[in-house]
């Protein structure tokens, strides 16, 4: 025997006599018990043959409950759940650590709701948190070939919007949504400009593109308003007329069994082609749990009314939602209005009211209870279409929601009555002129505020009409107008030329003198010297070459040109 084997046996505990005796007695006792049990079972089986089957079943059940078998079952179940979880996470990414990813499509957004009446802590809404918990909805409605897209009815009221229609209609026709699932309804009301001509031109170009286009001129249903007195432009009769038209549009959408109804004003310029698809995705996938993020967000299972946040270029405070509303039905500024409007916090938030553009899910029974006319029972508020509608929504126990996760488009600020006197004593034209100026400001400011976005452009079939609406090119009674631009900045030159064209200013380009090309030798040749001891009063430094080049550019225009 080897040393290793010998040592092994040497170290092994030797059984004592007492242990062997105890083991033998135990074995003998067990044998006697088994013999007795076997004899007893035989007697029982003979006396009670019907209980034999029950005993067999009980024995099988006892074997199933074996610990090893249960452990195996639990292990298999755990592996199965892991496989299911891995497969499900292939279709959505929970985290997005890329803070600079600004090119996400509208389908990849964080759908969260927050009660604006509750306190919001800044640390919960810093940029890192928003980027970290972005949810990506990889399964888009349009990416599922087996899914029939919901039908949409788009209702539009038009009144003196000839200046916005070419651009508004471009935003509609560029929506990335199956056009055969869209019905368009246009109502023209008391129009004195060329809105009807423009709309007819567009319909002729797109009549075969959509499921249906309905166009009605409602002028014959109401006496022309008296524009000679400004106060009569929005009388109670006119408000009631607008209320009835909006109710008529909503009823049309219900009558054609549309799944969704998009109410949009003719001066809302949609710049994002995925606006409609995104809103529907949010409404259909609003039951997203965020408990794993440990955030105090409240998810509403049913979003019935949802509006995108629309930017206003000519106002720091105006937008298409109200953060709060008084008991009488008037506007109130909520505590977190600017946080939402400026997109300091991003998500889908319940708000007091939305207007100008919003989407209604008509598939919910609650949507049948909302409308413009008749007003809710015992309603004593102002005769105003958006306020009556908001009260109707409240009576139906429906919340308005606003989505500010993306950039969607623009809306001009409303005309202020005190500004009309600057245009004309004829209030008939003063209102239109002011609206046109505000819309020009919208188009120009858009390429400044949103440099990475496209310009506000008209529909392809209305380019000539939009071009004819621009002021004729002129020099504003000057001999010559110059605009100075560095040759290495062609992007800025394009913007400047676009703005001048929109304003009707005939200007000549002059290449600026680039400070990077200047040398001390060049200064000596021209005799350019800086004043001894001169320092910039703000930066406390001497002049830079770029500043000298800017001065020389202006100097040369006066001397050379």
From TrEMBL:
Residue spans of biased composition, Polar residues class: 29-45
Stretches assigned to the Glycosyl transferase family domain: 479-560
Protein name: Glycosyl transferase family 25 domain-containing protein
Domain of life from the UniProt record: Eukaryota
GO molecular function: procollagen galactosyltransferase activity
Annotated region described as Disordered, given as residue ranges: 1-45
Family under the similarity heading: Belongs to the glycosyltransferase 25 family.
Pfam families on file: Glyco_transf_25 (PF01755)
Keywords: Glycosyltransferase, Membrane, Transferase, Transmembrane, Transmembrane helix
Signal sequence bounds: none
PANTHER family for the chain: GLYCOSYLTRANSFERASE 25 FAMILY MEMBER, PROCOLLAGEN-LYSINE,2-OXOGLUTARATE 5-DIOXYGENASE/GLYCOSYLTRANSFERASE 25 FAMILY MEMBER
InterPro entries (UniProt xref): Collagen_mod_GT25, Glyco_trans_25, Nucleotide-diphossugar_trans
Membrane-spanning ranges: 69-86
């Amino acid at each position: 025997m080897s040393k290793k084997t010998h040592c092994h046996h040497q170290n092994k505990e030797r059984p004592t006599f007492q242990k062997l005796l105890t083991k033998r007695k135990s074995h003998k006792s067990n044998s006697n018990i088994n013999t007795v049990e076997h004899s007893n079972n035989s007697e029982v089986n003979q006396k009670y043959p019907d209980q034999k089957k029950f005993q067999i079943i009980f024995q099988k059940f006892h074997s199933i409950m074996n610990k090893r078998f249960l452990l195996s079952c639990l292990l298999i179940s755990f592996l199965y759940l892991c496989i299911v979880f891995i497969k499900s996470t292939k279709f959505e990414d929970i985290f997005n650590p890329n803070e600079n990813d600004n090119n996400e499509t509208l389908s990849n957004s964080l759908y969260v709701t927050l009660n604006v009446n509750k306190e919001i802590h800044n640390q919960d809404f810093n940029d890192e948190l928003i980027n970290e918990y972005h949810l990506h909805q990889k399964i888009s409605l349009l990416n599922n070939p087996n899914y029939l897209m919901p039908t949409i009815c788009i209702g539009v009221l038009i009144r003196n919007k000839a200046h916005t229609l070419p651009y508004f209609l471009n935003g509609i026709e560029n929506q990335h949504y199956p056009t055969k699932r869209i019905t368009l309804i246009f109502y023209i009301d008391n129009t004195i400009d060329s809105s009807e001509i423009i709309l007819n031109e567009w319909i002729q170009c797109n009549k075969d593109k959509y499921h249906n286009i309905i166009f009605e001129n409602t002028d014959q249903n109401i006496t022309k308003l008296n524009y000679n007195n400004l106060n009569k432009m929005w009388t109670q009769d006119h408000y009631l007329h607008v209320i009835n038209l909006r109710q008529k549009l909503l009823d049309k959408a219900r009558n054609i069994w549309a799944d969704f109804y998009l109410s949009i004003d003719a001066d809302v310029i949609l710049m994002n082609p995925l606006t409609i698809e995104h809103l529907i995705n949010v409404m259909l996938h609003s039951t997203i749990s965020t408990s794993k993020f440990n955030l105090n967000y409240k998810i509403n299972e049913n979003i019935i009314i949802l509006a995108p946040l629309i930017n206003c270029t000519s106002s720091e405070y105006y937008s298409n939602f109200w953060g709060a509303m008084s008991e009488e039905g008037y506007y109130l500024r909520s505590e977190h209005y600017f946080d939402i409007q400026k997109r300091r916090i991003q998500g889908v938030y319940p708000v007091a009211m939305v207007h100008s553009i919003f989407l209604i899910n008509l598939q919910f029974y609650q949507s049948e209870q909302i409308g413009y006319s008749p007003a809710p029972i015992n309603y004593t508020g102002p005769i105003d279409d958006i306020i009556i509608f908001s009260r109707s929504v409240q009576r139906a126990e429906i919340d308005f929601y606003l989505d500010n996760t993306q950039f969607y488009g623009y809306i001009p600020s409303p005309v202020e009555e005190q500004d009309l006197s600057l245009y004309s004593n004829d209030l008939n034209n003063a209102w239109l002129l002011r609206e046109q100026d505000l819309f020009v400001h919208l188009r120009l400011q858009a390429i400044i505020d949103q440099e990475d976005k496209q310009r506000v452009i008209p529909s392809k079939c209305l380019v000539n009409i939009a071009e004819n609406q621009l002021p004729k090119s002129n020099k504003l009674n000057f001999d010559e107008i110059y605009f100075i631009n560095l040759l290495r900045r062609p992007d800025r030159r394009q913007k400047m030329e676009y703005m001048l064209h929109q304003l009707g200013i005939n200007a000549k380009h002059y290449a600026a003198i680039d400070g990077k090309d200047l040398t001390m030798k060049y200064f000596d040749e021209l005799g350019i010297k800086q004043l001894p001891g001169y320092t910039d009063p703000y930066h406390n430094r001497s002049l830079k070459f770029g500043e000298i080049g800017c001065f020389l550019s202006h100097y040369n225009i006066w001397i050379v040109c």
